[in-house]
Design a protein that fits this description.
Elements: H1 14-32, E1 44-49, H2 55-66, E2 70-74, H3 87-94, E3 100-104, H4 108-117, E4 122-124, H5 132-146, E5 153-157, H6 162-173, E6 177-181, E7 198-200, H7 204-208, E8 213-216, H8 228-232, H9 241-244, E9 252-255, H10 277-297
Parallel strand pairs: 1-2, 1-3, 3-4, 5-6, 5-8, 6-7, 8-9
The chain binds phosphoric acid mono(formamide)ester (CP).
Length: 300
Amino acid sequence: MNPRHFLSLFDLEPSELKRIVRRGVELKQLQGQRQEHQTCAGYLLGMIFELSSTRTRVAFEAGMYHLGGASIFLSPVDTQLGRGEPIEDTARVLSRMVDIVMIRAKKHETISRFAKYSSVPVINGMSDTLHPCQLLADIQTFVEHRGSIQGKRVAFVGDGYNMCNSYIEAAVQFDFELRVATPPDHAPQVPDRASGHVALAADPTEAVTDADLVVTDVWSSMGHEDDRERINAFDGYQVTSELLDNANNDCIFLHCLPAHRGEEVDELVLDDPRSVVWDEAGNRLHSQKALLEFLLTADQ
Ligand code: CP
């Protein structure tokens, strides 16, 4: 049987995604009560990181430990990947040794090629195109603070990059309205299947007005932090307290972190009462545990 992969939110059915979010909430409660939940005992996760990480790596490592399994961290520097062994060969070797693989790659194509040759489930731990694991945590955070996200209005302000693309997929899968405000040259491609859920707004205020959730992400992806010209293109797209005032009174603010204070988000917003970014970061642990459990044990 072909393994189930999680490279995109479109790889799972909406009902399966909602089940994972619900389970993330449950696992968080079990963890809070220090109740054992070793549902993945004996399973091994291999993690390939071409780029740095705090949240994704710690959430997967801690998560496998809580679930009774174990994990191996693999960086290209320490493996034959860094010396040119093809990703296809690595996939065939690793999937004979571990039960599930997570990859954070500079190019989405690397993850897709790995998945094609892997006989075990593969998780996208972030690529230049998508960040689906972050969306599981974001939806869990909204659900915990405000209930179901179905039918709600979400505003994404900033760069139409991997987080924005995953929000577009989430709008379809979780059935909410997404308004995206980006500079014209940084607008995302909206797939046909998402067109009924996504509107590209002319300006941030228009996008944020009456929103239930406001989201942003850094203006410079990893490896491009010093590209000032790129950053200058986002003038006027910073999320400030004043911008949030246009949203609904009970609006919440999310940012996947790490944040660049003074760029995509004003110094004060992360600590604004409307910000739940620390809960969001913590939920990476619980939602990724729910995802691991689903991919490793759902068919049993
Ligand atoms: N949000 C996120 O993916 O964080 P890390 O880069 O620290 O994993």
